[in-house]
C-alpha cells in the first residue's frame, strides 16, 4: 500500500471512529485519550483487525481448535483470563436489549452465569486483505438463537442449545473492539498490540493444544436432564415406590429420548421429538404421582404405606421433581430454585455446568419457531399520545410486553376485584438489604407511614439474580439504549446482600407512584432532597440506596408479583374495595418480620429472632390457609413475650437456658398438635407440578418451625438441612447466626 493510500485509509478510519462516538458516548473519553492518539500504521491495520473471545463453553468443546484451524495464521496476540461479571457486562452490553422498544431485558442474569464456569481465551487477529474481518468472523459465528443459526456457522455446527452457550464472542465495530482489546489485554499498550507481528508456530501449537478442565463433545442439555431424571427415578424405585411395569415404561421412554439426542438430528427436530416424549412421560406418570405418599409392593403390584417418615418425604420429593421435569416450560414459572432446593434435600448434587445447562434449558425452552420482532413505533408518535390512566397502563403493558407476568385477561380479572378503581392509589416499594443491614428499616417504614401511605401487604424475600433483573430491567434497558454507564454487576451484589422487604402500599389521594418517588429521593446521594428517605437517612450510593420503588402503575403490578401471588393481590384488592382509607398493617408488625440481630446478641436471642422470621414467612405464605393464621399469631405472641426475658441484664446462662426450655415445651406442644404438623399428602396429591415444588418448600419450612421448638431433637438436628429449607423459603440466616445456632443445638443440655 502506498503512503498516500495508507493516509487516506487512516483518515477514513478516524472519521468512522469519530462517528461511532455518537453511538457510544460513554467511550468519548477513551476515544479522546487513547484512540485519537493512535499512530497512522495502527489505523491502517484496524479495518483488517478483529477480536474474538472463546468463553468457557467454547473451550470445553474445543471450539478454539476449530477457530485456529480456520484463522490461526491471523493471530497477533492471545491471553487466557477469567472474565468477572463486570467485564462480562461490558462485553455483552450492546446485546442485552433488542431493537424493538416494546421488549425488555430478560436473560442477562442467566447468560452471565456462563463466565462462572471457567476461564476464556482472548484472540486478537489481523487479516492480510479482508477490510471487514470483524464482520466476517461475526457472520461465521452464527445467530445466538439456535433456531436461527445457519448451516456452516460455528453455532450450527456445534449445536449450541440456547443463547446462554454462545461459543464465541466478537466485537460489533471498530470502536468497541478497541475498547475491549484495551481492557482484555491490560496493561499492554494498545498501539503496540495493533502493529504486533503474527504469532509463530510454537505459540499456535501451545494454544491449540490447550484443554479445558472440563471437556465435552457438545453442550447436551437434554442428556443432563435425563441423567437427573434417572437419578430421581432411582430414588423412588429404591424405596419400592413404583410398580415394575410402570418403571419399565418410564425407562423405555428415557431411552428413546436419549436415542434422539445421540442421533443429533438438529435443534428443532430434537426439541420436537423430546417434547413428544415428555408428553408421553406425563401420561405415564399421571397414574402414580397423585399418590406420592404410598409405596408399591413389588410382589403384588398393590400400594402399601411407607414405613419411615424420611423415606416417605424423600419419595414425595423425588416424584414431585420428576413430575415437574416432565414439563420444562412450567419451570419458567416455578423458578429453578425450588427444583434445586428439592434436589439438595435429596442429596443429589449438580455441578456448576449442569446447573447452568438445566437452568438455561428451562429458561429458553421453546418448541415453536422464533416470533418475528414487533415493528418499532416512532418516538415522536409515542410522545404525542396522551398517557392513559393507570389501570389502562397496566392493561396496555400486559398486551404489548412479551415478558409481562400477566395477560390482559388476568389484569382484567384484577380490575373486577377493584384494581380499576384504585390503580392510581397503589404503589410498591422494597426496603433493600443495605437498609436492613444498617437497621434503618423501621425509620423508613415510619417515614412512609407519615407521608400517608398504608401497608396493604408485606413479605420478606432474599432477592435472586432473576428477581433483581426483573426489578431493574426497565432502567437498565433505558441506560443501554441511551448509551449511559451501567453497573448491573454491582446492582446484583447490592440487592443480593441479604433479606429484603416488599410492600404493597395505598395512598387515598392518588398519584401514589409519584408521591413515593418524591419521598424516596434521588438515587445519587448528593442530589437527594434533605426531607426524602435517602436524604435524611443517608444513602451511600446508587446501589446502596435504602429502598426501591416502582416508577409506573404498570411496574407496580409487575414488580409486586415478585413478592405476592396473583391470588394474594386479588384478595387484597377485594378487601380494599370495602375500605376507602384502610388502616393498613402496623409498622411494628411489619418491622418484626425482618427481626435482624446484632453482633452482641447471644444464641438464645438469635434463636428467637429466627423463630419470628419463620413464623412471619409462614403467615405471609400464599399456601398458609386462614385456619392456620390464629395459631401463628398465638405462636408469635409467645415468641414476642420471650424477647424481653432474653434481653434482661444479669441473668445467668443456666437461668436463661431453663427459661427457654420451659417456653420450648409450650411451643412444641402447641405446634405438634396443630394443623401445621399435619401430613401434606392430600394437598400435594392435588397439586400441579409447579405447585407441588412450592408445597414441598412450605412443608419443609413448617417442619423447621417444629424442629426449632423440639429441644429433645436439638443435638441431632441437621443444620445444613435447616439452612437449605430456610433458603428455599426466603428466610434469611447469616453465617454467624447459623454458627451460633449450630453450637447451641449441638451442646444443648450439656
TrEMBL record:
Q: Which prosthetic group or cofactor does it need?
A: Mg(2+)
Alphabetically ordered keywords of this record: Kinase, Nucleotide metabolism, Transferase
A GO MF annotation of the entry reads: nucleoside diphosphate kinase activity
Q: What class of enzyme is it?
A: transferase
E.C. designation(s)? 2.7.4.6
Pfam families assigned = NDK
Q: Which domain of life is it from?
A: Bacteria
Stated family = Belongs to the NDK family.
- For this entry, the protein name equals nucleoside-diphosphate kinase
Q: Which organism is it from?
A: Amycolatopsis balhimycina DSM 5908
Q: What is the lineage of its organism?
A: Bacteria, Bacillati, Actinomycetota, Actinomycetes, Pseudonocardiales
